[in-house]
């Protein structure tokens, strides 16, 4: 008699988790954060809501984890396309040319923010964060801060090589080029392009006063 192979529970769980991520991101983009529910996510993913509650306690946790996963997938895809080891891709490039490195990273950020698959659900989550300060704090902690720390590390490395002043605060300095991108994206006050990202780096590193 042929021996039956038991179903792979881990593989089934991973498929369900992936379906839940995709459903959560799709729903928040379609109906907004406030109208997205655990029941709706479960129905969209084709799982029971008890499956979701077994892994997460709220829709905020589902959505935040889905965004973290989306970011990791985007990073892995970019690393594969450029032939870079995924572990190395988590750090900002350090070629010895700070301006070029920052421009490359900011261009990738612009591309991500212009990608409907990322932009639509993220914009809905950002809008809700203006009202729900607790959600906003969690978005900063889980989604934004890990990436900001990569900038801090790269700017500190530039300080050590003399490319930047030793007395500046890297955490404040990074806001000179990241905050304008976020503001333009949120408010739609102008085109979000590679040229705009490059200009921000040049202004931030070169200063505005005549030399």
Write out key terms for the chains shown:
single chain; 211 residues; mainly alpha; Tetracycline Repressor, domain 2; disordered N terminus; transcription
Question: What is the percent of helical residues?
Answer: over 70%
Distance between the termini: 85 Å
Order of helices and strands: HHHHHHHHHHH
The beta-strand count equals: 0
What's the rounded overall pLDDT mean? 87
Quickly name the level 1 CATH class of the domain at 91-206: Mainly Alpha
Q: Can you tell me the CATH architecture of the domain at 91-206?
A: Orthogonal Bundle
Low-confidence stretches: 1-7
By DSSP (H or I, 4+ residues per run), the number of helices equals 11
CATH homologous superfamily of the domain at 91-206? Tetracycline Repressor, domain 2
* General shape: elongated
Structural class: mainly alpha
- Estimated radius of gyration: 20 Å
CATH topological fold name of the domain at 91-206: Tetracycline Repressor, domain 2
Major sheet characteristics: none
Give the helices and strands, then pairings.
Blueprint: H1 9-31, H2 38-45, H3 49-55, H4 59-82, H5 86-89, H6 98-113, H7 116-131, H8 133-160, H9 170-173, H10 175-187, H11 194-206
């Amino acid at each position: 008699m042929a021996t039956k192979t038991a179903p792979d529970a881990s593989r089934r769980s991973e498929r369900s988790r992936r379906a839940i991520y995709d459903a959560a991101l799709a729903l928040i983009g379609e109906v907004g954060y406030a109208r997205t529910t655990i029941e709706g996510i479960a129905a969209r993913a084709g799982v029971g809501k008890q499956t979701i509650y077994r892994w997460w306690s709220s829709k905020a946790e589902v959505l935040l984890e889905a965004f973290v996963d989306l970011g990791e997938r985007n990073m892995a895809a970019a690393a594969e396309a450029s032939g870079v080891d995924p572990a190395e891709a988590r750090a900002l490039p350090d070629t010895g040319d700070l301006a070029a490195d920052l421009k490359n990273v900011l261009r990738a950020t612009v591309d991500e923010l212009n990608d409907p698959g990322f932009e639509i659900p993220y914009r809905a989550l950002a809008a809700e964060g203006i009202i729900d300060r607790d959600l906003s704090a969690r978005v900063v902690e889980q989604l934004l801060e890990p990436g900001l720390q990569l900038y801090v590390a790269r700017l500190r490395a530039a300080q050590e090589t003399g490319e930047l002043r030793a007395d500046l605060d890297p955490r404040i300095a990074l806001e000179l080029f990241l905050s304008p991108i976020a503001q333009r994206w949120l408010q739609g006050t102008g085109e979000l392009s590679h040229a705009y990202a490059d200009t921000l780096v040049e202004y931030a590193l070169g200063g505005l006063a005549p030399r």
